[in-house]
């Protein structure tokens, strides 16, 4: 999963592997705690985790929320089908 995230998000190039793995794990942990785990919800969880904790709201500040959610949705759809 982290390999695919790196491929689709060049913005994360400077993020150390350990942080990327931890944020991916936290995202799945949060998804596991929700009642609804469709791909759209999962993409939202990943967006919030990565935007907030790894990039200090870089995506939100740039107004790229929906675009980035779609990128996460595409990754999840590809990996989990």
What can you see in these coordinates?
- The chain is mostly helical.
- It has one domain.
- The protein is 73% helix and 0% strand.
- The protein is built from 5 helices and no strands.
- The protein has helices spanning 2-8, 17-32, 39-54, 58-61, 65-80.
- α2 (17-32) crosses α3 (39-54) and α3 (39-54) packs across α5.
- The longest helix has 16 residues, at 17-32.
- It is globular, with a radius of gyration of 12 Å.
- The two termini are 13 Å apart.
- The model has no long low-confidence stretch (mean pLDDT 92).
Report the average pLDDT across residues: 92
C-alpha geometry: globular
Number of helices: 5
Strand composition percent: under 5%
The percent of residues in helical segments reads: over 70%
Global structural class: mainly alpha
Described by strand count, sense and barrel closure, the largest sheet is: none
Kindly provide the radius of gyration, computed on alpha-carbon positions and rounded to a whole number of angstroms. 12 Å
Tally of DSSP β-strands: 0
Distance between the termini: 13 Å
Concise summary:
By secondary structure, the chain is an all-alpha fold. It has helices spanning 2-8, 17-32, 39-54, 58-61, 65-80.
Short key terms for the protein model shown above:
81 residues; mainly alpha; 5 helices; globular
Task: Produce the secondary structure layout.
Layout lengths: L1 H7 L8 H16 L6 H16 L3 H4 L3 H16 L1
